[in-house]
Amino acid sequence: MKLATRMSRLGTETAFEMLTKARALEAQGREIVHLEIGEPDFDTPSNIVEAAVKALREGHTHYTPSAGIPQLREAIAEEISTTRGIEVNPGQVVVTPGGKPIMFFTILALCEKGDEVIYPNPGFPIYESMINFTGATPVPIPLLMEKDFRFDIEEFKGLVSPQTKMIILNSPHNPTGGVLTREDLEAIAKAAIENDVMVLSDEIYSRMVYEGEFASITQFPGMQERTIILDGFSKTYSMTGWRLGYGVMPQWLAGQVANLMVNSNSCTAAFSQWAGVDALKGPQDESNKMVKAFRQRRDVIVDGLNQIPGFRCLRPKGAFYVFPNIEGTGKNSQEMEDFLLNEAGVATLSGTSFGEYGEGFIRFSYANSVENIQKALSRIGEAMAKL
Ligand code: PLP
Which of 106, 147, 150, 265 is deepest in the core (most CB within 10 A)? Predict the structure, then answer.
C-alpha cells in the first residue's frame, strides 16, 4: 500500500531517537548521562499535582470545549497580558496537548504550496518538518555563533519576499540558548508589517532568561494582530508528560485552530487543564527555583566545556541548552554525537539534528543535576584525551 506523498515530506525530532538508543545501551548495563532531551529533571510542583488529583476526584474526567476550559483560557489571557504587557482576551487563546500542536495547527492553517516561511536554522526541527509537510518552501535564516546565534538583520531582510507568508521566531532559542534583542524584534516586526507576514513566536522558554529581560514581538505596535504566541507548561513548570500548552493569536485564527482541535484531539485532557489553572494562579516559587538552578548549571557546563580542547562554547542568555562549536576536535557533529554516547556514555544531540547550519556543533541540554553535568564533563574530557 502506497503512503500519501505528503508523508515523505514529514520530518522528525531526533531527540526521541537518541533517547531510545541511550535506553538500549542502559538495558545492556551501560550507565548513560542524559543531556539529550529538553526536559527539566525536576518534579512537577506539588500544588499542581494536588490540583490535578482534586480535579480527577471532582469528576473532571470528561470532554471539555475544544479550545479549552474557560477558566484556563482566562488565566492564560491574564498571564500573557501581564508578562508581555499587552491586552489579550480569552477568545484569542487555544489550549492544546503541549505547545507543539500550535506549530502543527498554525502552519497547517496558514501555509501552502507557493508560500515561503522563514525559520531559524539551526532550530527546533518540527518547524522545517511542518513547513515541508504543507508544501510551502522553507527559507532558513542561519544563526551564527559570531552573532551570538541571533538573526543577521540585513540577511533576514534579504530573505523576505512577496511570497513570504510566515516568519518563525524562537527566543530564547532551542538549540543555542540565543536571545533576540529588542532591536532585533523591532526590525523583524517592521519587515513583517511592511510585507504583510504572519509571525509564529515560539516563546516556550520565556521564563528562562538569565540576563536582561524577556521581550516579545507582540509588544510592537500592529504585531498582535499578525502574531501567534506559542507557550506552555512543559518547561516552566516541569510538566512535559502532562501535555499542556497553548497558542495566543488573532481571534479569526483561534477559531480555525480550535476546529483543527475538533478534528484531531477533541480537547486537551480535562485534569491537565485544571492543573494548568493552578500552575498559573498558584505560588511561583518552585518554578523560580528551577530557573535559578538552570542558571547555575549553565555556568558549570559552559566553564567545563571551554576547558576541553576543541570545544568553544558561548554563555547563552536563555533556555537550558548550550551549543558548543566542536570543529577544533576534527570530528563532525554526527561523529561527535556517536563518540560521546559510545565512548563517554553521554547522550547529546548532533547540531545537524537542528538543520544544516548546525554542522560543527553539538547540543547539550543542561536540564540535569550539577552532579550529572560534572560527571559528563569529566567523562568527555577523559574520552577526548584518549583520541
Ligand atoms: N518549542 C520549542 C522550541 C521546544 O524546544 C519545545 C520542546 O522541546 C516545544 C516547543 C514543545 O514543547 P511541548 O509540546 O512539550 O509544550
Answer: 106
For the CA of 97, the nearest atom of ligand 1: 14
pLDDT at 329 over 90: yes
Give the pLDDT score at 14: 84
Share of the chain above pLDDT 70, in %: 100
Decide: 173 in ligand 1 pocket, CB within 6 A. no
5-44+285-385 folds as: Aspartate Aminotransferase, domain 1 (3.90.1150)
Tell me which of 112-116, 269-273, 305-309, 383-387 is least confident: 383-387
pLDDT at 212 exceeding the cut of 90 = no
Say which CATH topology domain 59-281 has: Aspartate Aminotransferase; domain 2 (3.40.640)
Residue ranges of the alpha helices (H) in the chain?
14-27, 46-57, 70-84, 100-110, 125-134, 153-159, 182-194, 251-264, 270-281, 285-305, 333-344, 370-385
| Residue 299, all three cell numbers | 555556568
Q: What is the Å distance from ligand 1's center to 204 Cα?
A: 6
Indicate whether this model's pTM tops 0.90.
yes
The DSSP call for residue 97 is: S
Asked whether the beta carbons of 201 and 169 are under 8 A apart, the reply is yes
Pocket flag, ligand 1, residue 232 (CB < 6 Å): yes
In 3-state terms, what secondary structure has residue 169? strand
Q: How many whole angstroms from 309 Cα to the centroid of ligand 1?
A: 32
